[in-house]
Amino acid sequence: MSDKREHILIVAEALFGEKGFDGTSVRDIAQQAGVNLAMISYYFGSKEKLLEAMIEFRAMYAYGILEELNKNESLSPWDKMDRLVEFYVDRILNNLPFHNIMYTETGTNFRSEEIKNKVIAIKMRNLDHITKIITDGQQKKLFRQVDIPMTVGTIMGTISSYTQSRAFSCQILAIQEDINDESFRSRLSVRLKSHLKQLLRAHLDIRNEIEPE
Amino acid sequence: MSDKREHILIVAEALFGEKGFDGTSVRDIAQQAGVNLAMISYYFGSKEKLLEAMIEFRAMYAYGILEELNKNESLSPWDKMDRLVEFYVDRILNNLPFHNIMYTETGTNFRSEEIKNKVIAIKMRNLDHITKIITDGQQKKLFRQVDIPMTVGTIMGTISSYTQSRAFSCQILAIQEDINDESFRSRLSVRLKSHLKQLLRAHLDIRNEIEPE
DNA sequence: GTTTAATTCAAACGTTTGTTTAATTTTGTG
DNA sequence: CACAAAATTAAACAAACGTTTGAATTAAAC
Predict the structure, then answer these.
(1) Are B26 and B37 in contact, with CB atoms under 8 Å apart?
(2) Crossing angle of helices A181-204 and A148-161, rounded to 10°
(3) How far apart are CA B123 and CA B106, in angstroms?
C-alpha cells in the first residue's frame, strides 16, 4: 500500500472518529491530508469505499494475538481472562478513533452490505476466541455456567461506555478534564482493567454458583 | 406542546435513530411527517435545535421512577438492583430510536454545548441513583467494595452493545433474523435481564470479596 | 364581520456535498 | 532522450443540503 494512500486512511480515520462519517466531507479529508480532492476518488473510488478500505486496513491489526493466547498451554483460564481484558482495553484505548467509528458507524443500518459483513465477521471471530477460553475454564471446573455472548457484550460494552466522550468520562470518573490525552487514557486503562478483572473473577468463579432459592 | 410539533419530534427520532443526525435531512423529516419543509424551522428554529428539543422531550420520560425506587424502604438492596436492571433494560428497549441517538450522537465532540450539558446531566442523575442503592447495600454489609461508576458503565454498556444493530445481535445471540421487532426485543430483554442480574449478584456480593493473594 | 395573529405553503436562496473531467506534471522504463 | 503509465491538479458537475422568503390560508379575538 502506497504511503499516500495509507496517510489518507489515517487522516480520514481521525476525522470520521471525531465528526462521524456523514459529518466529514471528502474536502475535509483532502485538506487535512494535504492532497488534492480528486485523490480520494482516485485511490478509493468513493467515500464509502474509503471507509471499507479503512476497516480492511485495521481489521488486520489484531490477527494472531488472540490465537496465540488461546494456544498457550502454560496459562490457566484465569490468567487468560486477565490477559484478554488487558488486550482489549489496550487495543481499544490505543485505537480510539477507529473504535469510535466502529462504535458509531455500525448502527441500526450499516452503510453497505460489504461493511456489515466485514464488521460482523470481526466480531464473530472475537466471540469465538472468548468462547474457547471460557468453555475451557468450564471444563476444568473453574468457571461456572454463564451466558457467553452476553459476557462478551459486558466486556466490550463496559470499555465502550467510557471511550465515546472524554468530557463525559472525565465528569463521571472524577478525572480533571484538562489533563492530556496520554494521561487520560492511562488512568482510564488502569481503572477499566481493574474493574473488569474483578467483575469477571466474581462472574465466572464456579464457587459463586447461584444457590437455588 | 402542539400535536404537530410532537409528531415531528417522533418522526425525527425514528429517522435520526436509523440514519444518524447528519444522515437525515430536514426534507426527509418533513416528508415522513407529512408537513411542509419550512415547518421544521418554524417550530424549532433549526435542525440542531430540533435535536435539542428532542432530548428535552425524552429526558422528562423517566423522572420519578428511580426516585421512587430509591425511597422504597421495603425493598432490600438486592431487590433494588434487580428492579434497576429491569427498569433500564425495559426503558432502553422501549425507546430504541432515542437510545440509538444518544448512543451515536454523543460521540467525542457533542453537537453543541447545550446538548452536551443536557446529556451529561441525565447521566449524572442516573449515576447518583445507582450510587445510592449500592452504598446502601454496602452499609448493610451485603455488597462489597466496587468501582461504582464502572459498574454503571457495565450495566449500560452491556445493554447498549446489543441494541446498536439488530443484524449483529441476531447473529451473535443465534436468534433468527426474520422474527418481528416485538419478538426480538422480548427475547433480548429476557436474556439481558437474566445475565445482568446474575452478573451483578456475583459482582456485588460481599461473600465474593477477593482474598488477598 | 372585521381585524390580527398564527400557520402553511411553494419557491428560491446560497452553500456544500460527492464525484468527474480533461489537462498537466511526475515517474518509471527501455 | 523518448515514450507510456501513473499521479496530480484546478475546474466544473449536478444533486442535496439547511434555511429564508413572502404570499396564501386558517384560526382566534373582539
Answers:
(1) yes
(2) 160
(3) 12
- d(CA B43, nearest CA chain A) in Å: 24
pLDDT of residue A62: 63
Residues of chain B with pLDDT under 50: 212-213
- Asked if B91 and B160 count as a contact pair (C-beta separation under 8 A), the reply is no
Q: Which residue from A63, A118, A117 is spatially nearest to A91, judged by alpha carbons?
A: A63
Q: Is B159 on the interface with A (CB under 8 A)?
A: yes
Can you tell me the mean pLDDT for A30-41?
A: 96
Cell of A53: 478500505
| Rounded CA–C1' distance between B37 and C2, in angstroms | 32
pLDDT for A212 equals 46
Is residue A139 less than 8 Å (CB to CB) from chain B? no
State how far Cα A194 lies from the chain centre: 18
The amino acid present at B126, given as its one-letter code, is: N
- Contact state of A195 with B147 under an 8 Å Cβ cutoff: yes
pTM of the model: 0.92
Q: Which of residues 33-62 of B touch strand C (CB under 7 A)?
A: 35-39, 42
SS3 state at A205: strand
Q: What is the pLDDT of residue A161?
A: 94
